[in-house]
């Protein structure tokens, strides 16, 4: 292990923790974007086309947005990661700067000082924590929103991943999410077709769960037990845990972010199929839903299995996915507007007294069932952009119908995770047997 006595004091913390400083950086986002908009008008007057100006503004806004979210870590980075899966919905002419900015966000942020890492490990594992390891790498292998991961060798020779929570992560997470909720309308433009305000509210509801690494370890144990022996998946087993440290077996693989960028057709399709199967089968197999779908939490191992990590946020579904969702999907696919409307009302998706035409609701929902219409479906950015444009067109009937429908609270997490997983499938450009997977695992869908 390295000696950390010569670490400069200004590297003591990896997470800017002073509330005033964090608030100031987040507040710079709307000010910076507004300033660029004013500059854009000047460039238009100087002869640049609207398209050129908008592309420039978009690139700079994306760069600033995700640089700020990533550097602050905490709730800011967590929100940025949640936004990242909707990148596929951004129009092609604007997508490049977003992709580049998001890649930086999903990569490692600056680490905390070695002596600070050691201090947390001593507090959580005891003063003799070094005796538990045969080797501990002080240089973090990865950094996340509220913690960083170190590679180590356990005392029995096993290679392990040691996730250490940043000091002050709890305060920063709460502060960030409160501040971000004030700017929710600003972020709407970055995720067309997706409601940002409920996304932020749901992230805020989950924050205490994400901060408790012992609860995360218990979630991971349940997933590992349920998927043990499955030829398609590997869930790293938990070796030890404490409230701010969790130690799991180390697994090496290719992250989905790399497959999205460089993967061949066969690898993309395999990753997409396994991702969809994991998403739809978990509520049935574990009675839990992994609720942090972004490419950094999934990778393919050398033998073609999908490794899933980070179980800090889960949805507890003691009865699995509600059968009503499968029934609604089937009715929309079959074009049975009257039965679909009745079930939507009975399940609380249409508030009492709301006037909606059954055929309009069917027209709104039917495009979402396209992936299930045939034996396979090719998830593409173009398809997701089409859906986002349809939902975001304020002059269209789909926009009005979408605003009139209600999403009951118990379905919010399921809806967000499904949308996030679909976003990753589109980023992967994967063709998968979606219907077969849904038919096997979604209660109420099979006819």
From TrEMBL:
| Residues of the Protein kinase domain | 135-447
Instruction: Give the matching CDD domains.
Output: ABC1_ADCK3
Arranged from A to Z, the UniProt key words for this protein are: ATP-binding, Kinase, Nucleotide-binding, Transferase
Pfam families on file: ABC1
Q: Which GO terms describe its molecular function?
A: kinase activity
Q: In the UniProt record, does the keyword Cytoplasm occur?
A: no
Protein family according to the UniProt entry:
Belongs to the protein kinase superfamily. ADCK protein kinase family.
Task: State what protein this is by name.
Answer: ABC1 kinase family protein
Q: Lineage of the native species?
A: Bacteria, Bacillati, Actinomycetota, Actinomycetes, Pseudonocardiales
């Amino acid at each position: 292990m390295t000696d950390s006595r010569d670490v400069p004091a200004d590297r003591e913390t990896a997470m800017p923790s002073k509330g005033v400083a964090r608030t100031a950086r987040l507040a710079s986002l709307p000010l910076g974007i507004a300033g660029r908009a004013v500059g854009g008008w000047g460039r238009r007057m100087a002869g640049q086309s609207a398209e050129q100006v908008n592309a420039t503004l978009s690139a700079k806004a994306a760069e600033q947005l995700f640089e700020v979210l990533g550097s602050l870590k905490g709730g800011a980075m967590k929100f940025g990661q949640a936004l990242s899966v909707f990148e596929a919905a951004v129009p092609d002419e604007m997508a490049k700067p977003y992709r580049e900015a998001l890649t930086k966000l999903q990569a490692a942020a600056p680490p905390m000082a070695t002596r600070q890492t050691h201090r947390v490990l001593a507090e959580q594992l005891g003063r003799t924590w070094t005796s538990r390891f045969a080797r501990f790498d002080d240089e973090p292998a990865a950094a996340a929103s509220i913690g960083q991961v170190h590679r180590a060798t356990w005392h029995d020779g096993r290679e392990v991943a040691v996730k250490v929570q940043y000091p002050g992560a709890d305060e920063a997470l709460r502060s960030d999410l409160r501040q971000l909720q004030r700017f929710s309308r600003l972020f709407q433009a970055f995720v067309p077709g997706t409601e940002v305000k409920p996304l932020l509210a749901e992230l805020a509801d989950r924050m205490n769960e994400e901060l408790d690494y012992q609860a995360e370890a218990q979630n991971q144990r349940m997933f590992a037990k349920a998927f043990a022996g499955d030829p398609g998946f590997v869930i790293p087993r938990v070796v030890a845990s404490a409230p701010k440290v969790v130690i799991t077996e180390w697994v090496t693989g290719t992250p989905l972010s790399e497959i999205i960028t460089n993967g061949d057709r066969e690898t993309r399709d395999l990753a997409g199929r396994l991702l969809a199967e994991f998403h739809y089968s978990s509520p049935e197999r574990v009675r839990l839903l992994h609720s942090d779908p972004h490419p950094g939490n999934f990778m393919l191992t050398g033998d073609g299995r999908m490794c899933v990590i980070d179980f800090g946020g889960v949805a507890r579904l003691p009865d699995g996915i509600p059968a009503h969702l499968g029934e609604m999907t089937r009715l929309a696919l079959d074009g049975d507007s009257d039965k679909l409307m009745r079930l939507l009302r009975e399940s609380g998706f249409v508030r009492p007294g709301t006037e909606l035409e059954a055929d309009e609701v069917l027209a709104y929902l039917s495009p979402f069932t396209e992936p299930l219409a045939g034996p396979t479906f090719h998830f593409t950015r173009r398809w997701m952009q089409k859906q986002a444009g349809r939902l975001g067109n304020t002059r269209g009937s789909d926009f009005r119908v979408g605003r009139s429908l209600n999403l009951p609270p118990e379905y919010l997490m399921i809806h967000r995770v499904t949308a996030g997983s679909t976003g990753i499938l589109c980023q992967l450009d994967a063709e998968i047997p979606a219907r077969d997977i849904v038919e096997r695992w979604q209660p109420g869908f099979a006819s």
